[in-house]
C-alpha cells in the first residue's frame, strides 16, 4: 500500500514538471511566439532578456532555451542549491532557501541590473516558481541581508501562512510585490508561474514580482503582531514597517501603476493539475479516486486529524466512497515550531496521522511536497500505515516524543518511511494520498 501511494504521488509530480509545462504553454513558429491566445513577433524586439527565481525555474529556463535560444540576449535565474538544469545562455545561479543568503542577494542584484537595461524595444521573459520569495532577495533601503534573514526565520517558525509571510516579505523588498515590473518598464514583460500557493494567487507566488500588489504596510505590521514576533524582529525592520504604515515610505506597486500595461502573467501548472494526474494513476492501480480539495491549509498536526478521520470513515462505514478508494488532497499546511527537532510540515502531518490510524489494516497515508523538499530536510515527506507507531515503538522509539519535539525526520529516518525524491523540477505545494484497500 505504501509503495502504491508513492507511485501515485510520483505520477502527480511528473504531470507538472516545470519544463514540460512551459513548453505546453509557449509555442513558436518562425518568428511568431504563441502564448495562450496571444501572439508576439520576435522580429520586432531588439533584445530578449530572461530572468527569474524559484526551485523549479531551472527546468523552465532549459525549456525556454529549446524554444528561443537563438533570440536570447542575456539571462539570469536564481535557483535553490542543487536545483540546476542544463542551459547555454541563461545563467543559473544557486542560492539559499528557505533562508535567503549572500548568493541570493548577488543574484537578485544581477537580475535587477538586467531589468534596468531593458527598453521599450525589448522583451523580458520571467520564470517564477515556489521558493522565489527567498531566492529573490533584495532588501529595501536601510535593511541588511542579516536583518532580512532573522525576520524570515521568525516568520517561518511562527505558524504564519505563506501568503501572510509573503505580505511581510514584499514590504521589506526592493524587487518583489510588482517592483520587478517597475524595473523592467517600459519593456514588454511575459511572466510564467508554477503555482505553489493555495488558490493560485499571483500576488503570492514568489511574492508577485511582476504582479500588482493589493497588500499594504498596515497588513504587514498586523501580521507581525498577530504572530507575536514584534519584539524579536530586528529594530530596523520594525521601524521600516511602521514607517510604511505611517505612509512615510512608498507602497509596493499597485494596479494603477503604468508599468503593468505591458505585463502579462501566466500560471502554467498548479496543484489541481497534479491531483488530476494522481487520480488517473490511482484508477490504474485499481482504486476509486476522489479529489477532496486543493485548498488544504492549517496547522499540520490538526489537519492530520481530519485526514485520518476521513480515512477511518471510508474504512469503517464505506463513505464517502466504498473501498478500494484513493482520497486525494492538496494544499500547504504550516507548523508552529516549539521543539528542537528536525522535520517539515509533511513529515509532521504524516506522523500525527499515524496515531489515529493505528491497528487499521490495508491503509496508507502519504504526505509529500511536490518540490522534493519538506522544510529544511532532504526528504519530500513521509508515508505511514496502521502499524507505523507500533513498529517505531518496537525499535525503541516513542513517536509522541518525536512529534512534541517537531522531530519527525529522525523518527522516519529510523523506520524507513521517509519519502525521498530529490529535486523534482516542479513545485505546486503538497499532495496527500490516502489509500484504503
Task: Characterise the protein shown here.
The structure is a single chain. By secondary structure, the chain is an alpha/beta fold. The chain has 2 domains: 17-138 and 173-215 and 252-269, Rossmann fold (3-Layer(aba) Sandwich); 272-436, 3-Layer(aba) Sandwich (glycerate kinase, domain 1). It has 16 helices and 15 strands. The protein has helices spanning 2-14, 18-25, 57-68, 102-117, 132-135, 145-158, 162-170, 179-184, 217-226, 235-245, 271-284, 300-317, 345-356, 388-394, 399-404, 408-415, and strands spanning 26-29, 32-35, 38-41, 47-53, 72-80, 90-95, 122-128, 188-194, 263-269, 288-296, 325-331, 363-369, 381-385, 418-419, 430-436. The chain has a 6-stranded parallel β-sheet with strand order 6-5-4-7-8-9, with helices on both faces. A 6-stranded mixed β-sheet has the order 10-11-15-12-13-14, with helices on both faces. Helix 1 (2-14) packs across helix 11 and helix 9 packs across helix 10 (235-245). It is globular and about 65 Å long. The termini are close together.
Amino acid at each position: 500500500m505504501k509503495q502504491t501511494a508513492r507511485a501515485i504521488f510520483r505520477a502527480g509530480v511528473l504531470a507538472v514538471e516545470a519544463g514540460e509545462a512551459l513548453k505546453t504553454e509557449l509555442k513558436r513558429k518562425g518568428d511568431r511566439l504563441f502564448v495562450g491566445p496571444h501572439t508576439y513577433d520576435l522580429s520586432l524586439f531588439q533584445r530578449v532578456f530572461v530572468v527569474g527565481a524559484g526551485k523549479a525555474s531551472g527546468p523552465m529556463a532549459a525549456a525556454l532555451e529549446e524554444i528561443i535560444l537563438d533570440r536570447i540576449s542575456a539571462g539570469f535565474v536564481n535557483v535553490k542549491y542543487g536545483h540546476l538544469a542544463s542551459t547555454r545562455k541563461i545563467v543559473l545561479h544557486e542560492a539559499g532557501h528557505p533562508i535567503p543568503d549572500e548568493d541570493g542577494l548577488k543574484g537578485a542584484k544581477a537580475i535587477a541590473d538586467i531589468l534596468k537595461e531593458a527598453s521599450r524595444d525589448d522583451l523580458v521573459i520571467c520564470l517564477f516558481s515556489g521558493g522565489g520569495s527567498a531566492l529573490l532577495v533584495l532588501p529595501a533601503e536601510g535593511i541588511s541581508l542579516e536583518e532580512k534573514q532573522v525576520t524570515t526565520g521568525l516568520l517561518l517558525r511562527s505558524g504564519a501562512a505563506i501568503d501572510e509571510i509573503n505580505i511581510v516579505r514584499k514590504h521589506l523588498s526592493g524587487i518583489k510585490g510588482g517592483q520587478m515590473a517597475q524595473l523592467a518598464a517600459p519593456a514588454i514583460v511575459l511572466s510564467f508561474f508554477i503555482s505553489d500557493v493555495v488558490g493560485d494567487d499571483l500576488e503570492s507566488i514568489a511574492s508577485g514580482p511582476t504582479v500588482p500588489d493589493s497588500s499594504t504596510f498596515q497588513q504587514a505590521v498586523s501580521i507581525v503582531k498577530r504572530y507575536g514576533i514584534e519584539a524579536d524582529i530586528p529594530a530596523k525592520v520594525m521601524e521600516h514597517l511602521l514607517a510604511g504604515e505611517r505612509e512615510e515610505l512608498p507602497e509596493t506597486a499597485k494596479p494603477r501603476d503604468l508599468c503593468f500595461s505591458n505585463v502579462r502573467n501566466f500560471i502554467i501548472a498548479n496543484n489541481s493539475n497534479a491531483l488530476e494526474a494522481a487520480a488517473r494513476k490511482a484508477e490504474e492501480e485499481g482504486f476509486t479516486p476522489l479529489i477532496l480539495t486543493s485548498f488544504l491549509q492549517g496547522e499540520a498536526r490538526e489537519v492530520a486529524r481530519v485526514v485520518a478521520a476521513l480515512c477511518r470513515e471510508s474504512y469503517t462505514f464505506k463513505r464517502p466512497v466504498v473501498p478500494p478508494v484513493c482520497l486525494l488532497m492538496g494544499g500547504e499546511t504550516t507548523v508552529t515550531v516549539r521543539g528542537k527537532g528536525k522535520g517539515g510540515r509533511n513529515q509532521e502531518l504524516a506522523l500525527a496521522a499515524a496515531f489515529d490510524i493505528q491497528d487499521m489494516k490495508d491503509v496508507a497515508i502519504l504526505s509529500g511536497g511536490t518540490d522534493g523538499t519538506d522544510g529544511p530536510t532532504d526528504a519530500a515527506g513521509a508515508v505511514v500505515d496502521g502499524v507505523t507507531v507500533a513498529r517505531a515503538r518496537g525499535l525503541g522509539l516513542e513517536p509522541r516524543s518525536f512529534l512534541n519535539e517537531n522531530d519527525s525526520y529522525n523518527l522516519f529516518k529510523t523506520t524507513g518511511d521517509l519519502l525521498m525524491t530529490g529535486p523534482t523540477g516542479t513545485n505546486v505545494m503538497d499532495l496527500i494520498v490516502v489509500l484504503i484497500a
